[in-house]
Amino acid sequence: MVFIVIFLCPMMLPCISRDTAGQERFRTITTAYYRGAMGIMLVYDITNEKSFDNIKNWIRNIEEHASSDVERMILGNKCDMNDKRQVSRERGEKLAIDYGVKFLETSAKSSINVEEAFFTLGRDIMTKLNRKMNESSSPGGGGPVKITEKSAKKSSFFRCVLL
User: Fold this and answer.
1) pTM above 0.85, yes or no
2) CA 46 to chain centre
3) DSSP label at residue 76
4) Using one digit for the tens of pLDDT, what is the confidence trace for 109-155?
5) N or C: which end of the chain has fewer CB atoms below 10 A?
6) What CATH number does domain 2-162 carry, 3.40.50.740, 3.40.50.300, 3.60.21.10, 3.40.50.2300?
7) One GO molecular function term (predicted)?
8) Which H helix or E strand runs over 15?
């Protein structure tokens, strides 16, 4: 099973995330979400080789249907279950390098790197938005929005709802 989390973020967030759990029945619905997505997390289960293999299929789907500049991240979940591991951390890292995306191992159960994953993807989205604003801003127009981890945590800047 592959979890696909898609961020649809207006300029000043909150983010809306959609979790399709990588299920085939959501494939046609998911392609519609890709069009407006600003960030996509592809999550595989490190205890399930098949879920890792499916990441490549989902990336092809993203390349076909999403914007070319969508932020992407690969997450290997269940890193708290090392005794049942079927996919090495190195294989996950290599896949991420091959596709030019960031990689983290997480554990939703133990809350390992979950917040870091969301914050990293959110920060990368905002960095890209700031860059676009700087490139297209007219003289006297608004400047970039600055986000730091400290201020983001204090104000709960990234409020994501799982639908």
Assistant:
1) no
2) 17
3) E
4) 999 999 899 889 888 888 888 888 888 765 555 555 555 555 444 44
5) C
6) 3.40.50.300
7) G protein activity
8) strand 15-19
